[in-house]
Amino acid sequence: MYRVLSKYNLITVLPFEDTFFHATQLQKKVKLSKDLLKINYLKYSPFTNPNIITITHEQQLMLWFYTKEVNTPIIIAESYLLFKALKEEQEDTIYVIHDTIVKILILKASCLVGAFTLSSLDESSIVLSMDEFHISKRVDITLQEYKTLKFSTLKNLSFEDIYKANQLHLDRETILPKFIEYASYPIAALVIFAMLVSYGQEKMLHAQIDSLKTTYLQNKTKNKKIKNFIKIHNKKVKKWQDFADKELAYISPTLLLAKIYEIFKDKEKAHFIDVSINAHKMLVKLATNENPVVFLNRLNAIDSIANVIIQNTYKPRDAMKIISYEIEIKKHKDV
Amino acid sequence: MSNFNMTKVLVLLIALIVYINYQNYIKEDSQKLHREILSLQTNIAREIDIEKQHYTEQNLSLDYSQLMFDGKKYSYSQAMGAMQNELTASAKGLCSVKQMKWAQVPSHDGWYDKLRMNVSISCTPNNFMKFSNAMKKNSILFKIETFRATRDRNEPSLNLNIQVVAFRRHQ
Q: Are residues A194 and A294 in the same domain?
């Protein structure tokens, strides 16, 4: 994102040496206006009539005073970028960056508490700062490491960072004209382009529809005659299907008798006395000495019949038992 | 408002107005167009499928009319007579026909009539099956609607009372 913003001259990273840093603790979260900040904190600035960048991190208010004239809408302090890169370090540390000038960054309890530059490596100033902030750890960063750190932070610059650093600049009066200034032509172009793309797509879809319609009509005309045959054929099939469903719904009595005969054929002592079949019901009366329940189970196993019940069983004197079964015949479609 | 570059504002406004009007009044529902394409593609696929099946008038002809007596050729009485002849021929040499009784003239509802004949025959179970198979060999469909078989004591033959149904079509 930084690359894009800098390409269009939308962002400035204020160098360490061009800013004066001051940090203070806020008692509660408040929204600070530019005027309010000037009234309260201008006294800490070494510059006369400076500009201010502020960032609130937890309860800490970080202020960077600067006098440099900057025309870009987004301004961010370099020391904030370094703080962002190093804030994950748990220990309180003083960072000494060896650039053409020496840059000092002091982090305490994951907050930036000091950021200043020295024209040369002045050990006494560093020790003094360490004593002032009760810091015992010192980390020296070479120029190469510093460049890498800065580059990676800029690469990972988020919208949140930009917003945080520029809240003071982002008031309605200034942001809207600036937005219009920078974005009106690109947005207008984008809108027109989107419209043209959408229109083009629509035209393409219409052309595809027309082509498909022509193909469909050609095929439809070609199949018109055969479709008519199919329609008549389906009508006939339906007619005969309805006939079969109505008139031939149940198994033929002869087939049913053949199936039932299979059950009794091995039983020499079972004789049919009376068999009647009427539509969906069958009555079987037979003489046997077998257990009637044995036949009942076998009858129930036939797939074309259901709900076999023993109507009655009686035994005439000196003769075999007479058993009457009532059987329900299933429809073909239920089998 | 003095901070605004009015030309740029105007350009942006015109672009937005044109775009909104295009979206609201000119742009068609692309979902609808895609649905139409899909529907046409499905229809074309169906037509191609029909074409691939190589249907002809011959392979689509379905005729089961021979299963019934033709109402144009046979009156009720003629159809019943023919039915009686067919049943007698089927029973010949297998069962002895004791009685054949015609049912009442059916009412004309639907596209066919049901011709009912109550038949009393006497035969062995084996011969009854043969009689039944002989009936099935006829081009006309004979259906046994009701069936009752009783056996006289010490008689090998069964007394069978069956109602046979045939059909006569009007169309």
A: no
Cβ contact B48–A209 (<8 Å): no
Contact A64, A19 (CB under 8 A): yes
Taking contacts as CB-CB distances below 8 angstroms, the residues of chain B near A320 are none
* Domain limit, last residue, from A121, A153, A170: A170
Q: Could you give the ipTM of this predicted complex?
A: 0.76
Total domain count, chain A:
3
Q: Does residue A157 sit in the same domain as residue A58?
A: yes
Closest to B51 (Cβ–Cβ): which among A222, A232, A279? Answer: A222
Residues A104 and A186 in one domain: no
Q: Minimal Cα distance from B143: which residue of A? A: A252
Mutate to test the interface with B, among A201, A218, A276, A283 (most CBs of B within 10 A): A276
Do residue A227 and residue B4 have CB atoms under 8 angstroms apart?
A: no
- pLDDT, one tens digit per residue, over A105-126 is 888 887 888 888 887 777 888 8
Instruction: Give residues with Cβ within 8 angstroms of A272, minimum separation 6.
Output: A264, A284, A285, A286, B149, B151
Helix (H, G, I), strand (E, B) or coil at A316: coil
Both A38 and A140 in one domain: the answer is yes
Residue A149 and residue A73 in one domain: yes
Domain boundary among the residues A123, A141, A170 is at A170
What is d(CA A62, CA A111) in angstroms, rounded to the nearest whole number?
9
∠A77-A81-A83 over CA atoms, to 5°? 110
User: B30 in contact with A at a CB cutoff of 8 Å?
Assistant: yes
List the domain range (segments joined by +) for residue A227.
172-248
| Nearest beta carbon to residue B62 from set A180, A199, A233 | A233
Question: pLDDT digits over A44-90, tens only?
Answer: 888 888 888 888 877 788 888 888 887 777 888 888 888 888 877 76
